[in-house]
Protein 1
Amino acid sequence: MMHIAILTGAGTSAESGLGTFRDKDGLWTQYDLNDVATPDGFARDPALVQGFYNARRANCISAAPNAAHTALARLELQSDHDITLITQNIDDLHERAGSPDVIHMHGELMRALCARCDARWDAPPVMDADDPCPHCGHNATRPDVVWFGEIPYHMDRILEQVRAADLFVAIGTSAEVYPAAGLVEIAQGETLEINLEPSTRAHVFDSRRIGPATQTVPAWVAELTGA
């Protein structure tokens, strides 16, 4: 039995129709990230930010888990390996595929956060700038996602699990956004990159598999499980 720490990025969900930062003509290209993905942007125009994430939430709700998500869920549920699943993604496709314990380092699109009292709750499909916090009553509700300039969630747990893993696998990530990009450097075991094309830091990994996530991930899981 191995302890396997897996990090998934936007490339894991891209084939489900959820765009990445780098997609041409995608949702992200229509906005200045300083306006919709920073605390300052939210302070300036909360309605714009809520509208942006309402669109992303609708996109997520209409999407379905793909073969990469279901293969990783199968690995967690049906193999003898000890799996730690970490994701940079804010969608819930891992959970909908059946993964029982997902560490969301950048938060969750389907959750809401009060910027005043730090309460969290399930987000409705549409959030409004005037929505009061159900706990403190202030109009300070925002998506429970990590914006640029904020500290990712669960970092102590993530670092501990990656260091302790026999195998660290990065799937569908550009390896350009820290601290996620630096996890391979703290891994003590073997390291593997699975990506559509080699990332800018592919040379840091011990091995790599190149191709669409819906093909490469199920093939890798089948090898591990013998199924």
Note: Residues 86 and 163 are 13 Å apart (CA to CA).
Protein 2
Amino acid sequence: MPSTTRNPAGRARIGARTLRTDRWWLSPLLVACVLGVFIVYTTVRLFMRDLYWFPEGGYLTPLFSPCLSRSCLPGSAHFGTPLPALPLAIPLPMLVFPVIGGFRLTCYYYRKAGYRAFLRSPAACAVREPAARYRGESAFPLILQNSHRYFFYLASVLLLVNTYDAVLAYFPPSGGFRIGVGSLLLTAMVITLWLYSLSCHACRHLCGGRLKHFSRHPARYWLWTRLSALNARHMQFAWISLVLVMVADLYILSVSAGWIPDLAWRA
């Protein structure tokens, strides 16, 4: 039987740019601005060779942790320096940031937010899209987004390192116990990063995604239900943790440069 529709294949045709009267563009614009600021800031920051380690407080920025090169500042390499000194053209976090960026870039929420903000695919419901065809994530390069679970495994290792750094921030190289603004920022950042990672769909799938009978695996089912509850706030954890990473890095940069003092209490 022949199709009764005018456009049986392809995307729905909308003559007008949009029929909406609300400020539908505000959300993708805000996402584009925040992500744009983060991308520009981190790009500049990654090629800096100093101001990422504050020895007085023992603060190491998460963007450079772990620092594994002989080019690292003294005291900042908590796990040794297996890599040789790197030329200026190669950023020190060349092994770290691809994992951090890859985990965020392939995140299900950031994929949706990024497609709407930068590709306008879709910008919003009932808004015409610029692309004539839609292939989803079935072809290169977007098919690489399916590597999210592997980035989750690597990012989990880095998160353990970040947690270790946050603990060390209370025990600076000079000795004793010290609570500073930087250590509190690193602690808050690590907590939100854990919430962001644990609420990830890949984490839920790892714990209970392949189970066919929850009754036979009560412990995994209990864990899956808790992670599912966190997943409801995955978007909030994604933004809060992203902002705190940038704020913590900016604070460490500022105190290392001497722009602001590091307020702290020492036992």
Note: Helices lie at 26-46, 97-105, 108-119, 148-168, 181-198, 201-209, 218-231, 234-257.
Protein 3
Amino acid sequence: MEIRSTTEQDHDVFVDTLLTPFGLVRDTTAEDGGGAWWSALEMDRGVMAVADDGRPIGTAASYSFELTLPGDTVVPVAGVTAVGVLPTHRRRGVLTAMMRYQLEELRERGEFLSVLLASEAVIYRRFGYGPATYTRRLTVPRHRSALAAPRAGGADTGTVEVLRRAECVDLMEEVYDRYRRTQPGAVSRPHRWWALRAGQPPIAPAPRYVAVHRDADGVPDGYASYSRGDYDPVTKTVVLTVDETIAVDDAAFTALARFVLEHDLVTQIVFKHLPTEHPLRWQLADFRAGEVGGETDWLWVRLLDVPRALTARGWFADGELVLDVEDRFLGEHNRYLLTVRDGKAECVTTDRDPDLSLDVSDLGSIYLGGTTPSTLVRAGHIRAHHPALADTLFRTPRAPFTLHWF
């Protein structure tokens, strides 16, 4: 078996090989591949496993994204995707070989962070990835969807208008880019994605209405992409599904939420993706009206260069912490002294006794602040002498959240 990098000439065979493990077939109805989720693949970042007889048997790839870290720091990140092995060649070490090749290649490119969305939660921890952001669904019956008046005051002075997706792609691209630069855990959506209509709605060309919020000066600062389902004669329901709500501040989000919650001729409103601690449920006049479900991990994080990663993000408390980090997959084991002063960190190797002993996947989980070190101590994953100090250092004022699907 050979593991090699791919080029643009490998595109078609790469896609066909990738689709086979998932039981999918190529959609040939879209012109020029437009709207196909694989149309934004960067073939100079692909990896292919080839059997001894020359047949491709596995694929992996990565996108060149940006990731927003705590402290509004935006850094390059590899978005791992398109990972699959033919059913006839599973459990023969193909995936392990591709993942090792890919991580080494990313390091050679000078990248220090890698992220992915895991199709199965049991696969990627052994390669050093840990779940770092989370999402959940909120379902609200239309007849119980009223929002309470804010007791702290403050009225929205903006406006909401309804457009069709095709009328406002550029607007959505601009608003999303503003939003993601201040939201920890958010991943960029390069212009290439919007132009190729690659991904899921509202990037994909599926018909959608888009509620656009404008501030008091008429500047777009939020949108909600949504669709109305057909009447279900069995459940006697009509569901309005919100793909995503993007807003640069809470006032814009609330205005957009109120708009969809007051939609006529529907029986349920479903917000597909909300942060686990989002205040929308608290804004309902009937607290019990919001049914929470579908809570799951979303973005998984892998540190490729621990000192660079820890010094790249912002910090919100001062202190020192000694981290004993084991990277079993790459065969590395190092101890680092993390020193934080005035929001900046220094990270150097040390021989001091550790405050935390952890796997690199656990470091990935706590890196963005969405999981506390003490949670993983209680779970039996991290060995800690000073978990309270670690919680204080890694805590962030805003929970990380990721919407982008790749």
Note: DSSP finds ten helices and 19 strands in the chain.
